[in-house]
Design a protein that fits this description.
The chain is α/β, with parallel strands linked by helices. It is built from 9 helices and 7 strands, in the order αβαβαβαβαβαβααβα. The structure holds NADP nicotinamide-adenine-dinucleotide phosphate (NAP).
Length: 274
């Protein structure tokens, strides 16, 4: 696997700003499980959401035993209509300081050679559910004066890619949406980060790639999620890492996107009065 230098993370400051509860949409395995493990280690209670309740309960019980945290297991398919609202309902009586929109992968496909049912499911998961859940939690963050939103997107959202038309398009939505929210709320104590993630050795990836696939260029998911948590607290709007053909431009892209956003924050004050 590829090495990823790990960013420093002030755990006490993290808990103060984003505790006592975090919600992870897509928590039972892969990057979602990595987020859960690092947050539990910091003592943050967890609402674990995904389709397989038994897997969520097994993870929740293990984290409770290891770290003494509380957890809720919420069985919810994120591709269903109203999924975001049901997540909000499941967390309506607790003080949530962090929402992680994690699940969102799709298999390789050919758009004109299938009907559009899978495409609409992906839009519900990566667009509609994200809109409802982030809006609901964001309102609470405004009331409590702080909070965080992590959106696990993909390098595929930075431009079109063959066999991933809907995936690339919904990941572009996630990136632009998160960057826009960063620009709107970062001066009001609410942190938002988009992670344009690279290929990572998650169970989903291992189920998807052909036998013999070269895994030397993929990343450790726990290293990517650690840096996402650190980047959120550091106030970064986006982290870009990808394993594709133009990966040499990654550092420059990240800087350019942040500079552009900061420019728009100032520019928009001339319209909104600050
Ligand atoms: N892995 C990579 O190489 C890679 C590369 C770039 C970006 N990313 C992004 O990183 C994020 C995480 O990726 P991942 O590889 O861990 O795979 P993933 O399939 O996006 O996420 C897996 C987790 O989400 C849950 N999940 C999947 N579909 C769901 C649904 N319809 N409803 C509710 N929960 C669902 C799974 O649990 P259940 O099975 O229990 O539902 C599991 O806990 C995604 O947003 C993905 O786009 C991944």
């Amino acid at each position: 696997m590829r090495d990823l230098p790990q960013l420093p993370l002030d755990k006490a400051a993290f808990v103060k700003k984003y505790g006592p509860w975090a919600v992870i949409a897509g928590a039972s395995e892969g990057t979602g499980e990595c987020f859960a493990r690092e947050l539990a280690e910091m003592g943050i209670n967890l609402v674990l959401v995904s389709r397989r309740e038994e897997a969520l309960k097994a993870l929740g019980e293990a984290l409770k035993a290891e770290h003494g945290i509380e957890y809720r297991a919420v069985a919810q398919d994120l591709t269903e209509d109203g999924a975001g609202l049901r997540i909000l309902e499941a967390a309506s009586d607790i003080d949530v300081g962090l929402y992680i929109s994690n699940a969102g992968a799709d298999a390789f496909n050919r758009f004109f050679e299938d009907d559009t049912s899978a495409a609409h499911r992906l839009v519900r998961m990566n667009v509609s559910t994200l809109i409802d859940a982030s809006n609901g939690f964001g309102r609470k963050f405004l009331e409590r004066g702080c909070g965080g939103l992590i959106v696990m997107a993909s390098g595929a959202g930075l431009g079109g890619q063959p066999n991933l038309a809907m995936y690339s398009a919904t990941k572009a939505f996630e990136i632009n949406f998160a960057e826009s929210l960063w620009a709107e709320y970062n001066e009001r104590g609410i942190d938002v980060i988009a992670v344009a993630a690279p290929m990572m050795k998650t169970p989903m990836l291992l189920r998807t790639v052909p036998e013999g696939f070269d895994l030397s260029q993929v990343y450790d998911p726990g290293e990517v999620t650690h840096n996402a948590l650190a980047g959120l607290l550091a106030g970064e709007p986006i982290q870009i890492l990808f394993s594709g053909p133009s990966s040499k431009d990654v550092a420059r892209l990240e800087v350019e996107r942040k500079e552009r956003l900061i420019g728009f924050v100032e520019f928009n004050k001339t319209f909104t009065g600050g």
